[in-house]
Amino acid sequence: MLTYVEINRLEGNEDIELPRKMSELASGFDLYAAVQEELVLEPGKRCLVPTGFAIAMPAGLEAQIRPRSGLALKHGITCLNTPGTIDADYRGEIKVLLINLGEEPFTITRNERIAQMVFQAVPEVELKQVDQLSETVRGAGGFGHTGR
Ligand SMILES: O=c1ccn([C@H]2C[C@H](O)[C@@H](COP(=O)(O)OP(=O)(O)OP(=O)(O)O)O2)c(=O)[nH]1
Ligand SMILES: [Mg+2]
């Protein structure tokens, strides 16, 4: 089923590409940097990169902002808060929190693809407080208790 998500290009970003799938069955819409000309991200530093657009999706969806593997592999550039969460009721500009985990400064240029946005269904959940939880074999074991 096709779902329509409204997208609004923000003023001053007429030259910035709107998010786009780069192949027919791609999961993510690639996001383009709406930085002024260039932005240099030094090793170990983070920055919030504007994208020049806002969206409105129907209730029951979220958007996740995920890194691009090529930038991660070649330059150590990733999203610090990956996956970034875009709430269905958010109407502000979508921004990408990048961090440079590489050894070299990385230059972000205007209209460069810096991350991708994947839409996901969010189930309707309500938390119900109880005195005792249902039992399982795992129980409270976690954090590697099954071995390395
Ligand atoms: O990578 C991101 C993450 C978040 N947002 C926007 C959309 C999201 O709906 C809002 C809030 O994000 P989040 O809930 O992750 O941040 P918070 O620190 O909990 O802020 P808030 O108190 O505003 O919810 O910020 C982005 O544009 N990019
Ligand atoms: Mg929040």
TrEMBL record:
Enzyme class: hydrolase
Enzyme Commission numbers on file: 3.6.1.23
Biological pathway: Pyrimidine metabolism; dUMP biosynthesis; dUMP from dCTP (dUTP route): step 2/2
SUPFAM superfamilies: dUTPase-like
Cofactor(s) required for function per UniProt: Mg(2+)
Keyword Metal-binding: yes
Binding-site residues for substrate, renumbered to this chain: 68-70, 81, 85-87
Entry keyword set: Hydrolase, Magnesium, Metal-binding, Nucleotide metabolism
Keyword Metal-binding: yes
Domain dUTPase-like: 16-147
Enzymatic reactions: dUTP + H2O = dUMP + diphosphate + H(+)
GO molecular function (one): magnesium ion binding
GO BP term, example: dUMP biosynthetic process
Highest taxon above the source species: Bacteria
Function: This enzyme is involved in nucleotide metabolism: it produces dUMP, the immediate precursor of thymidine nucleotides and it decreases the intracellular concentration of dUTP so that uracil cannot be incorporated into DNA.
Family: Belongs to the dUTPase family.
Protein name: Deoxyuridine 5'-triphosphate nucleotidohydrolase
